[in-house]
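re: the backbone from monday

yeah here it is again, tokenized this time
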């Protein structure tokens, strides 16, 4: 794996000043459902887009009216904020025709990037749909739309919680890339070593596409713990104990969180990370606290 190519003495301030303005950033949002949530998202987008993200992504709401929230949010971010938007697309529970129609709508909006995921089974759905895995979705997009879309897929440095083995998980990623994926966005993590080893293992299997680390800001630790338990992301014991010591001191939790995650980002950049993808949870404050520490 390549590290940052810096010539001359390793003056830390010079390193961050020279690298970070060139590092691509991207931000993930979820589709708001209420007027209050839409107002909050608009405020966050306005603040975050000042950092000229390469693109922003919008998570997928499967089925019925929930799905319309995703499309409407994509349209708003693209048309009102002039952002390059990558809709998330899940294949679970959908037919080829339904997925094809949705992709055509995104083509009409001018979207050129898709985040292709397996996703979870929508509540109330009896069957998994015609496409069962992310690789099936990638193949479908390539068969129907050729090279029109830049396709991102998910990677798991600490391995997918449903994977039968680490080798099996790595093999699935290799297959997704071989099927036509252009890049990988990882699940969030807090151990830089997990990303370093993950990239090394994937490269050894012949994958050369960019592997962008997913970054989760820490604003609400209780919420983060719930998310992490569900997705299999490990929170190091020292972080958890420090957070627990602060109890209900929200400001102290946020300050520690910003220090921890910005330090993680610095290590990832030194390891050669090609960009940073922030899971914003539609809030700008915690993400900005990290970015501002990195001297963007």
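seq for it, each position gets an aa:
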């Amino acid at each position: 794996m390549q590290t940052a190519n810096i010539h001359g003495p390793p003056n830390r301030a010079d390193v961050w000043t020279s690298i970070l303005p060139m590092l691509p950033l991207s931000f993930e949002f979820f589709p708001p459902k209420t007027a209050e949530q839409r107002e909050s998202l608009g405020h966050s987008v306005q603040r975050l887009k000042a950092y000229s993200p390469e693109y922003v992504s919008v998570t997928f709401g499967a089925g019925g009216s929930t799905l319309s929230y995703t499309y409407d949010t994509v349209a708003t971010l693209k048309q009102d904020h002039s952002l390059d938007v990558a809709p998330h697309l899940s294949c679970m529970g959908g037919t080829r025709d339904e997925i094809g129609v949705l992709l055509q709508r995104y083509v009409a909006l001018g979207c050129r990037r898709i985040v292709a995921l397996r996703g979870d089974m929508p509540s109330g759905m009896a069957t998994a749909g015609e496409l069962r895995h992310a690789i099936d979705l990638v193949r479908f997009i390539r068969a129907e739309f050729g090279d029109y879309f830049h396709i991102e897929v998910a990677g798991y440095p600490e391995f997918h919680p449903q994977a039968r083995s680490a080798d099996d998980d790595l093999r699935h990623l290799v297959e997704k890339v071989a099927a036509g994926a252009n890049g990988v966005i990882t699940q969030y993590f807090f151990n830089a070593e997990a990303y370093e080893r993950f990239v090394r293992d994937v490269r050894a299997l012949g994958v050369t596409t960019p592997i962008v680390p997913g970054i989760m800001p820490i604003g609400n630790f209780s919420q983060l713990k719930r998310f992490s338990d569900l997705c299999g992301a490990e929170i190091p014991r020292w972080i958890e104990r420090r957070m627990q010591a602060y109890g209900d001191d929200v400001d102290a939790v946020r300050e520690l969180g910003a220090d921890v995650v910005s330090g993680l980002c610095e290590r990832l950049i030194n390891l050669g990370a090609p960009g940073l993808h922030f899971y914003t949870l539609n809030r700008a404050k915690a993400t900005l606290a990290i970015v501002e520490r990195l001297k963007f």
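The chain has a mean pLDDT of 88. The first helix runs from residue 12 to 19.
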